[in-house]
Amino acid sequence: MRGGRFLCALCFFLLLAPAPAGAAGGYETDVLPTSAGDLKITFIGHASLMFQIEGKVIYNDPVGQYGDYSGLPKAEKYASLLWISAPCLRSFLRSRFGFKTYDFLRVHEMMAYRIFDHTADLGIEVSGGTVAEVYAGAALALFDLIADAAAVRAEEERAVGVEGEDEADLLVNFLREVLYAWNGTAFLVKECDISEVGPRRVTAILRGEPFDPSRHRIKREIKAVTYHRASVSRSAAGWFGRVVFDV
Amino acid sequence: MSKTPLRKIDDWRWEIPQEGGMRVPGIIYSSEKLLKGMGADEGPAQVANVAHLPGIVNASLAMPDMHWGYGFPIGGVAAFAMEEGIVSPGGVGYDINCGCRLLTTRLRREDIRDRLGALVTALYQHIPSGVGSRGPLKLSAKEQREVLTEGSAWAVRRGYGAQADLEATEDGGVMAGADPEKVSDRALERGRDQLGTLGSGNHFLEIEVVAEVYDENAAAAFGLEAGQVCVMIHSGSRGLGYQVCDDYLARMVKHIHEIGIPLPDRQLACARLTSERGRDYLAAMACAANYAWANRQVLMHRTRETFEKALGMGPRELGMRLLYDVCHNIAKIETLPVSGKEVRLCVHRKGATRAFPPGHPALPPAYRGAGQPVLIPGDMGTGSYVLAGTEKAYTETFGSTCHGAGRVMSRTQAVKASRGRSIPRELAERGVIVMASGHRTLQEEIPEAYKDLDEVVEVVHRAGLSRKVARLLSLGCIKG
What we know:
The complex is a heterodimer of chains A (247) and B (480). Chain A is of the alpha+beta class. Chain A has two domains: 10-100, no CATH class; 115-246, Archease, Possible Chaperone, Chain: A, domain 1 (3-Layer(bab) Sandwich). In chain A, 21% of the residues lie in helices and 43% in strands. Chain A is built from four helices and 13 strands. In chain A, strand 2 (28-34) and strand 3 form a beta hairpin. The longest helix of chain A has 17 residues, at 167-183. Chain B has one domain (7-479): tRNA-splicing ligase RtcB (Alpha-Beta Complex), CATH 3.90.1860. Chain B contains 17 helices and 19 strands. In chain B, strand 12 and strand 13 form a beta hairpin. In chain B, helix 4 (116-126) packs across helix 11 (276-311) and helix 8 runs antiparallel to helix 10. Classes of the chains: A alpha+beta (247), B alpha+beta (480). The A-B interface holds A 115, 117-122, 165, 168-169, 172-173, 176, 180, 182-184, 186, 218-221, 223-230, 244, 246-247 and B 41, 67-71, 74, 90, 94-95, 130-132, 186, 189-190, 199-201, 239, 242-243, 245-246, 249-250, 253-254, 265-267, 269, 407-413, 438, 440-441, 444, 480.
């Protein structure tokens, strides 16, 4: 795994097993041709997916409460990868299976966060093992929506701190502050390190660089972070956050 | 969420009966066809939510272009009593005084047929557009204060347009009560270099031609005739307005309990009109509204310059004139009839347009016979409508009507639907030249992502909220 820091921490549990023949019962499967043969991606629910390639089965389930695995191939070996980010997952898949042709952006979108449809707006759902991971993951997801994150370098630091009434209010206020780095000061964020989390306060260090039109591609304008149905919740499997952006 | 019950009143109106904590019923102007197309949209639930707010008068209204917004629905109209009522930043929207202005010219369609491509390119080059677009105008702190308090008049004073433009702008292009002290440093910073820029998303500048005239008298009063070339500008208060909304929404969320009722959604956060926070928001919102009017005034000036240069014409020959400028994201203190009595109210129009009737003193003398011009921009490439305000809108919907087509597809769905297609080529086949800084913008704004504009306008026309005057078709469009 390359990359060094994996600050957007998402708990991915990867379960490896020999692949049996036959399709996954009742789930939708996409088949994508790659240089290493067909990659089958089965959508299990929420951000949970099953990958099948070269006779291997990989389960990815960051939440652990949406999938019904009873009709699916059983896993024999099990590995848990903590602190994995989408670029890291990408390089993992590339090194193990020699992927060359697959559009990894889609893997990224499906894994680090999920975009949900809202007629006028754009929303994200982020999960993490701790509430800090949800805040950090949401900040990176926000910047992934704004700019092509691959071209942004972590060269400068900005400290941000916000207060809020509860976790959802904190998430919105935190993202408002993170968004201002771009909207107000043309600073693109690459990494987010949460330094302090309390019930009423979050502080973080943002790393990134000032916008350079010659190197950075801006994908879309995010006008604001809304309170509309913003939520942060906790389950046995971890934390889950949801927020809608006005675009 | 349980389905909001809708009771049909007549062919164009549906009622959400008053129940639970609702202080008034909800009324949705629509048609069977548009309601069916709404599918899982939760707009009606939001109309019901707004009906819970203190001081709301008559009903929580929604126009036929209604769709699910954040907090308040887009296409929503709600009026509040001055004493016990509230003002809500979410009921105005982030893009304060987002609106339209329509410019007429002396050009006929055939005059620009061969030069359309060059004209669109020239507009694209001279009018800053796109994400976070910045303009050549850098305002000093003093100048910015003037923009925020004077609105369009500042631009005219600086040579961007003529005195007559002010008369052809809603409220003369200036909202009273603007106090720059109530605008945060962040908002001021964001507004410093964005005056005269179009922005991104659904904002656009479009060359259009009058394709059909429905009401000859009103069209003549507005100076419109079939075959005439016009320009529609759709933009707002840019980053400054977004920041004002954001700042005050957060302030009101912090004190959300002071309203005294539990709100189903923080995005509905509001403050009493009589409270300091409420008054501060109105003063800051007025600043953003004035910024937006100055912005559209500068954009119009740039458009005129570009046309003159690209076509090699003088101002007289071109004859570019402002027909009207309307805002469709605003809260305004207006005097309107309630049960036969004239009452001062705070009217929120979030994705709705003022539509004052013939004879109203707020209208320029030339338009008093016809009623207020109402500008309804369509989605990319379909053109626009010019309507006229009516007495019925005045008495039934606080002088309000629809504002556009309204989305039916989410942006993600729209991008999916445009996969493998060339949107500029498709539009070119329909005779429309489009230039956009973002490839994704074109995909997100594909025509089928919006409700059928003709159907939306038909509903407000049939329901009597405004009269059809003319239909304009797109020829060329620049987008952010």
